[in-house]
């Protein structure tokens, strides 16, 4: 039996749609201005970081609740099941950063700006990860955002100064803001650890200004962040700060489950279509 051309076209479109939703539906380029504005709207600037003027768009990928890799957009709210180790780092617009060459290396950190509680951050800037010697290889692009270049650690193994510690904010401690930041690494650390300039292993109450001075770092060239809402901590669960409205967060928890349902439905439709075509 021969199918009409219009039917074939419709079936092809349906199968393409079913396959395409397996990718990250939210993966898109974000301008450096949008990153900057998100940090201001969240209160991170100037509460935690005095200023942020990114020259690159810095991305982190994570495993969503439905098991797919997703691109972390600035201000994304993650569920407790999505707080695992990042699956990829990538960057756009690296040519816009000053003093960056083909041989430049980079360092990345993750910190909790609101430890142990948003309303009483006595361990502010709790460091969850710090590692250097990340590089960019031309032609090695992100698996989620083809316009971004992957940041990877060279074949020679370099141990993180602070190995990744999964965030574990306690219940009813408010909305925690977790910040990833990207810096150009001074060449002296290509073969020397950060302890060589006196950096200490203690992770709580990390003094970022002192750390930058120790390592001779310029400002961060890129940064992003996510939030985890643990419930009320004497503030509204839907706020960015103690009293400001929550305009900076993008809640993906509902979107992830919706996307999973769409994937499942389209997958069943595609399966049925393929079975039907096989009988013709």
Model description:
- By secondary structure, the chain is of the alpha+beta class.
- Helices cover 23% and strands 24% of the residues.
- It is built from five helices and ten strands.
- The protein has a ten-stranded mixed sheet.
- β1 (57-63) and β2 form a beta hairpin.
- α1 packs antiparallel against α5.
- It is globular and about 45 Å long.
- Residues 1-23 and 234-280 have low confidence and may be disordered.
Name the average pLDDT. Answer: 80
Secondary-structure element pattern, one letter each: HHHEEEEEEEEHEEH
Low-confidence stretches: 1-23, 234-280
Q: Major sheet, described briefly? A: 10 strands, mixed
| Helix segment tally | 5
Spatial order of strands in the largest sheet: 2-1-4-7-6-5-8-9-3-10
Please report the distance between the alpha carbons of the first and last residues: 6 Å
Strand content: 15-25%
Features:
280 residues; 10-stranded mixed beta sheet; globular; disordered N terminus
How is this fold's topology laid out?
Elements: H1 5-20, H2 32-41, H3 44-47, E1 57-63, E2 69-72, E3 76-77, E4 88-92, E5 105-112, E6 126-141, E7 149-152, E8 175-185, H4 208-215, E9 222-229, E10 250-251, H5 253-279
Parallel strand pairs: 3-9, 3-10
Antiparallel strand pairs: 1-2, 1-4, 4-7, 5-6, 5-8, 6-7, 8-9
Helix pairs in contact: 1-5
Structure described in brief:
With 280 residues, the chain is an alpha+beta fold. The chain is 23% helix and 24% strand.
């Amino acid at each position: 039996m021969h199918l009409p051309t219009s039917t074939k076209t419709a079936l092809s479109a349906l199968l393409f749609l079913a396959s395409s939703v397996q990718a990250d539906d939210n993966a898109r380029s974000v301008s450096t201005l949008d990153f900057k504005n998100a940090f201001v709207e969240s209160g991170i600037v100037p509460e935690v970081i005095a200023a942020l003027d990114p020259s690159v768009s810095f991305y982190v990928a994570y495993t969503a609740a439905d098991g797919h890799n997703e691109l972390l957009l600035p201000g994304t709210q993650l569920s407790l099941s999505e707080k695992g180790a990042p699956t990829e780092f990538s960057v756009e617009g690296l040519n816009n950063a000053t003093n960056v060459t083909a041989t430049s290396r980079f360092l990345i950190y993750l910190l909790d700006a609101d430890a142990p509680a948003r309303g009483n951050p006595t361990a502010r800037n709790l460091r969850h990860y710090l590692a250097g010697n990340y590089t960019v290889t031309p032609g090695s692009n992100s698996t989620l955002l083809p316009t971004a270049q992957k940041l990877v650690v060279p074949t020679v193994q370099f141990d993180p100064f602070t190995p990744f510690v999964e965030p574990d904010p306690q219940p009813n401690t408010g909305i925690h803001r977790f910040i990833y930041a990207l810096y150009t690494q001074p060449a002296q650390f290509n073969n020397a650890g950060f302890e060589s300039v006196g950096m200490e292993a203690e992770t709580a109450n990390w003094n970022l200004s002192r750390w930058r001075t120790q390592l001779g770092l310029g400002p961060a060239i890129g940064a992003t962040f996510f939030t985890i809402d643990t419930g009320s901590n004497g503030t509204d669960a839907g706020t960015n700060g103690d009293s400001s409205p929550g305009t900076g967060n993008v809640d993906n928890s509902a979107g992830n489950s919706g996307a999973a349902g769409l994937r499942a439905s389209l997958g069943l439709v595609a399966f049925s279509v393929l079975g039907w075509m096989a009988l013709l």
